[in-house]
Design goal:
Low-confidence stretches: none
Helix content: 25-40%
Number of strands: 24
Number of helices: 15
Radius of gyration: 23 Å
Distance between the termini: 79 Å
Strand content: 15-25%
Mean pLDDT: 94
Shape: globular
Amino acid sequence: MSYQEMYRQKLATAEEAVKIVKSGDWVDYGWCTNHPVALDKALAARKDELYDVKVRGGVTMWMPEIAKADDAAEHFTWNSWHCSGVDRKIIQKGMGYFSPMRYSELPRFYRENVEVDVAMIQVTPMDSHGNFSFALGASHLADMLDKAKKIIVEVNPMMPWVFGLTGTEINIRDVDYVVETEGTPVAELGGGNAAPSAVDTAVANLVVPQIPNGACLQLGIGGMPNTIGSMIAQSDLKDLAVHTEMYVDGFVDMAMAGKITGKYKNVDKGRQVYAFAAGSKKLYDYMDRNPEVMAAPVDYTNDPFVISQIDNFISINNAIDMDLFGQVNAETAGTKHISGTGGQLDFVMGAYLSKGGKSFICMSSTVTGKDGVTKSRIVPTLTNGSVVTDPRTCGHYIVTEYGMVCLKGLSTWERAEQLINIAHPDFREELIQEAEKMHIWRRSNKK
C-alpha cells in the first residue's frame, strides 16, 4: 500500500479522532508550538462526557480550549513539564500542576516511567516518503509517540520543515489518525524584537567580551539572552557555532550577520543544533528547510557529556534570584511556581566541563513587584520554598549590571564578598549585616 493510500485511510475530522479519548486517560499534547489546536478544541467540546482526563504539555504558548471552561478542573488536569505564563495561569485556575525534571531526562521518562494513552501533536504536511516533521519541537516527541497507544497528528501547512537527527519525524505507518487543517499561523513568542533595557545592555556589555571567536553558543529564553545575541550580531566576533536547547531570534540575528559558520565546532560541524524553537515569524522562515539548522532530541542537545565535547562552549541563562552561598533559583518565587529547571543545570555543568567553556547566569540586580516594592535579586538565603536550580557547587560566572564574578574556587566568605559587590548598592549594607550573622563575612572585608 502506498503512503498516500495509507494517508487517505487514516484521515479523520478532529471530532472523530478525539473519540478515542476515554475518561481516566493520559493524553499528551506534545511541546510548545506543537500543541494541537483543532484537536484541543474538539476534545474540549467533549468535556461533559469525560472526567479525570490527565493532559501533559509544556512551554504552553496559548490557553488550551480544555482549560477555558469554569468547571474545566472537574474534567481535565493539566500537567506541565516546563511552565510558561500560560501554564502559570492554568495552575492558578486550580487545574494545573508542574512536573519537576531535568529536561535532558524527559525522553527517558517516557521510555521508563510514564504512560501515554493518546498523543496528539501538530506536524508538517507529509513528504513523498510518508514522513511528517516535528518542525520546531523535536524535544522528547519521538519517545513520547513510541510510548503512546494511539497517535493523532494534526497537519498544519504553516509549520516549517526542519531537518534533523533520528527522532525528529514520524512516518504515516505509525500514525492512527490524520487530521487536516487549513493551517494555523505558528504561535509567536513575544519579546524577540523588543528594545533592550538599560540593564540588559549593561549585562550584555560584560558578557560579550568574554566570548572568543569560534565559540559555541547556548542562549536561554528572555530579553537578556536576546540582547546578548543582538550585540554579538553587531560585534567583530566570527565563526561562531550553535548547540542549544531552545532556538531563539538572537541566533537568526547572528546568522544573518554572518557570525555563525560552525567552522570550528567539534561536534556536528557546521550545523546549528537545537531541541525546540519559539520566536518570531522571522525565526520560523529562517529555519524552514535550512540545512544549516538541525533538530535533535533533547537527551542529545542537553546531555552534559555531549556539551562538554564542544570546545569553547558558552552558556547564557537567566535567574530569578540567588543567595550569598551561590545557590541559583531560576524556577520559583518562594512556593509560587514561575518556570522550571529545564536545561539550565545541564548547560551549566556541560559548559564548565568544555575546554575553554564558560557558563553565565545573568540577572538584573533588583526586581520591583506588583506592590511597587523593589527587592534585591541577590539575597542572604533563598526565600522559604524557593527551588535550587543550580547548586552552589556548580555556579561559574554570575552577572548583574554592576559587574561579573566567577565563583569557582571561592570560599564562602569570598563568595559573599564578590556577590555583594555586584548587588545593587542600596542593598549592600543589609547583605553585609546578614552575611556577618551567617558567619560568611570576614572582619577584614571592605564595607
